[in-house]
Amino acid sequence: MSFEDIPHLPTAQQVMQSALTRGRKKASSITKRKTDTPLTLARKKERERIIAIYHDIADRLKSLPKQFPDLDTLNEFYRELLANDFSLDEYRQRLSRAQNTPRAIAAIRDSVRGKIEAAQSPQEVKQATKHFIGRTSGAVERIGDDLVWLEDVRRKLRTYPKLKELFTVCIAGFPNVGKTTLLKALTGASAEINEYAFTTKSLNLGYKQIKGRKIQFVDTPGTLNREHMNEIEMQAHLALKYVADVIVYVYDYTESYALSDQHALRAALDEHGKPVIHYLSKQDLIPDEEFARFKEEVGGLTQEELLDAIHAFVRTTRTL
Ligand SMILES: Nc1nc2c(ncn2[C@@H]2O[C@H](COP(=O)(O)OP(=O)(O)OP(=O)(O)O)[C@@H](O)[C@H]2O)c(=O)[nH]1
Ligand SMILES: [Mg+2]
Q1: Which residues are within 8 A (CB) of 241 and not within 5 positions of it... i.e. 6 or more apart?
Q2: What is the CATH number of domain 167-316?
Q3: What does the alpha-carbon distance between residue 151 and residue 8 come to, in Å, rounded to a whole number?
């Protein structure tokens, strides 16, 4: 899902400025006809002005719930990420307050329209418009904080990984074991690889067709199975929990992480209840007999075998 298309939210002041400009343009486009008296002309202009002001505000605010994600249908991965950064109740409240503002302004517009029709002089007509603008500004200012808050949400949403609704393989394992290298080898995705740990600071995504089916690969940052997760560890955790159809767990016999720790992290993945395929990285660095031992112990695979193993799950899983 991509949140890139949510338009930037204006401030309350910008909403009013834009609406007043549109109202001014509309009013000045009304020209005097022969039959017009100053009073009928003023009525026409001000009637059109308040309608234009209303529409300018309503166009922006009414569409907000369509632009922002609907929490009821949003994928749990994003919903939990969002809940980690903002209160979801507040999100609902602020969004609906902004969305409902046009209704309040429509009521002001309708009552002021009556005043315009009943006015006995151009001054009285102008007075009615002034009244409309004053009350409308008040209504817009009251959602000023909501607009600023929602703009913060919008900016945050843009930073979330852009996952697609595809069969997904998450690559997990200790830092520096070669997860990103594997992603690159499998999918050709460009991502940073380094000889030091914690290179990957966001979820790297890669795509590959396996026997005619497009598969999404998610390279998670190396986690240390900590209780308190930072933002990226949280993303990795949620991807494993909600997005992964299959997990590839990368073992590394050359790294400093004790094999017992690597087994412990592997065992922790069982909480997600997903199939886990074991892969041994840096196979070129270890003697054949050690690879044979790994194969025996945890069922290590070559990259070709890994793709076949993934494909076996694609065939048996119907997530799409
Ligand atoms: N010789 C050899 N080196 C490898 C292999 N796979 C990874 N490496 C090296 O191991 C180091 C770490 O690789 P990465 O792919 O960045 O490891 P990572 O698991 O993504 O690391 P983090 O993102 O920090 O968790 C790099 O120096 C890689 O070049 C391999 O199969 N053979
Ligand atoms: Mg990495």
Answers
A1: 76, 77, 272
A2: 3.40.50.300
A3: 7
- As a whole number, mean pLDDT of residues 57-75 equals 92
SS (HEC) of 104-158: HHHHHHHHHHHHHHHCCCHHHHHHHHHHHHHHHHHHHHHCHHHHHHHHHHHHHHH
Q: Where in the chain is the domain with CATH 1.20.120.1190?
A: 12-159
CATH match of 12-159 with 1.20.120.1190: yes
Q: Can you tell me which atom of ligand 1 is nearest the CA of 193?
A: 16
Question: Per DSSP, which regions of 63-196 are E strands?
Answer: 167-172
Nearest residue by C-alpha to atom 1 in ligand 1: 282
CA of 261 to the centre of ligand 1 (A): 18
> For residue 217, how many other CB atoms are within 10 A of its CB?
23
Mean pLDDT of 103-124: 96
DSSP state letter for 193? -
When the pLDDT of each residue in the chain is averaged and rounded to a whole number, the result is: 90
**Of residues 279, 224, 272, 216, the one with CA closest to residue 250:** 279
Using N-to-C axis directions, what is the helix angle for 12-28 and 122-142, rounded to 10°?
160
Spatial contact of 180 and 204, defined as CB atoms under 8 Å apart: yes
- How far, in Å, CA of 18 to CA of 23, rounded? 9
pLDDT on residue 320: 46
Residue 89 tokens read as 């109740």
